[in-house]
Prior knowledge:
The protein contains twelve helices and 19 strands. It is an alpha/beta fold and 369 residues long.
Amino acid sequence: MKYQTRKPALILLADGTIFHGKAVGGKNGSAFGEVCFNTGMTGYQEIFTDPSYFGQLMVTTNAHIGNYGTTKDEVESDSIKIAGLICRNFSYHYSRAEADASLEEFLNDNNLLAISDVDTRALVSYIRDNGAMNAVITTEVDKLEDLKKRLSEVPNMNGLELASKVSTKEPYFYGDENASYKISALDIGIKKNILRNLAERDCYIKVFPYNASFEDMKAFNPDGYFLSNGPGDPEPLTEAIETTKQIIASGKPLFGICLGHQVLALANGISTYKMHHGHRGINHPILNLVVGKGEITSQNHGFAINREEAEAHAEVEITHLHLNDHTAAGIRLKDKPVFSVQYHPEASPGPHDSRYLFDDFVAHIKNSK
């Protein structure tokens, strides 16, 4: 039985704390990154392939991972983006008819190190108390001193630019070229389901690299612009921030999600900061201040915008608040068709409470024509 023959493994946190587990499958070695956790009870394949998680060791709080296998339709990018997986119970067998492979096969195909049999409740509690930090997961359990040295050399997520690691290298098109609306999208870690949602709303999208200039994006003659989600600290994205300033000045509709929300804030002089342990899950409560309704949302971010600065900004209005910690979760410009949210309205696998935001974006485009 695989369960009986799996190698011992461990998690070494930057502060020296150790949690023990066992290697999943035959993959050996070590993987470094920032350790964080996601509370979603489903959607693990979407999480693992989301570019926003690039460079992170993902702890899944759901007790069973892999039980419904994987399919080619449930990916958010062309490969796994997390640095490693940490879970409680790993399912080598799956029971969903639609699945085309096991999670073990999916991880092996992507050469990802995973460990299971970890006390994830204790680990998540530790992260909540002490904050997200760098860590290493490893089967090299007899090389602790070397691992500590290597771990100390891993850069901190604060100040780390990662969009360039996941962005497209060349522009590409998505959707029907005969669609009613054209969108120029800045890829700083874009998810496929965002493109699907735009295409479903009669949009033809040209996706540009993270460092595209406004002139590049303008040359497509778009009806609107989009700033995507993505990984890392938003502050080093100076080119994207400058491009955003020029998009705003153009007067065209602009919609930003997650990292794009933070870039929009920075383009308006609102600072960002690294959160203690971030928001990652599919059950985060949001209050839409414009209509007074609540939304259950999908979130995955480790940075946020400064709420006090947003409230004091004469040209900015806060439109959404996170109800757990009252961080600013959405903003819009008062005199332009420009808005953004910190969470994921395209939410794959769900919830879908916030998909109206794509409709709002298209409505802005229609009104601007």
